[in-house]
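Quick one, T. Sequence first:
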Amino acid sequence: MEGAGARAQIYSVAFDQSGLPGDVLTNSRVCLKLVTVFFGETLEHNVRVLRKILRGVKLWSSLKHPNINPCYGWTFEFPRNEPHFGIVSQFCPHYNAPRYLLKYPEANREKMVCEVARGLRYLHDDAGIVHGDVKPRNVLVSDEGVAMLSDFGQAEILDLAPINLRDAGRFLTLEYWAPEVFPKVFPATDGDNILYRSMPGDVWSFGCTLLEILFGVAPYSGVHRHHVICALITGQPPFKEVDTTTIFGDVAQRCLTFDADKRLPMAEAVTMLDPPKASAPPMTLASFAG
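Structure tokens:
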């Protein structure tokens, strides 16, 4: 096992390519993520769950971009009579951005931010997809040191589980969620709450991810998790101060505006960040406080 969360377990498994034409995969190992599937009491609900899962995986498998972690397929597992939906994707031995940067602190963080921005722009503009859970731990790093967004769509799968705002702090990474997520709670057909997600919400999460990758400081650092929702709703920013005299600081600040309609589109963020424009002197850690 490579890792585990509240609703998922991650494994690296060997893939046997014997008998398959050509090099199907570039690596003999793949990543298998088992997500707990919550079936309801009615057949209608269960069919809806399965259809949404399969639709999401099919869509993920169709995406082709160097900054999107490729999806190879899916499987079902039933350990201890608990159904798990398995997503098979590229295995990244460097794991996610925080673990990679901990091992390689001198890595080019600005390059990583630019790659995440390109991947998210592709999802928004070319594929018309809301990621729904942008954060450093969902940024994987390939053998070649290329940053790739992963795990998009899983947030929508979890929407079909019995989750409400009281569960949110236990299952979701609230610190990266946009402020409009929580006031706009949609009632699901079974009485549970579905949390609102949007492209501007992804942009907010990208702003948080940008600053954390650059400086290693998480949004709402020092704020207890139970108080994060209150901080978001009352207008407390995730970082107390951002140096907007640099390109990265300017992009972060424009991503983290509380007015969702005024947030920077990812296409514009990519234009601002791409070299040589992103080669400006980086911000210092002292320029903002967690």
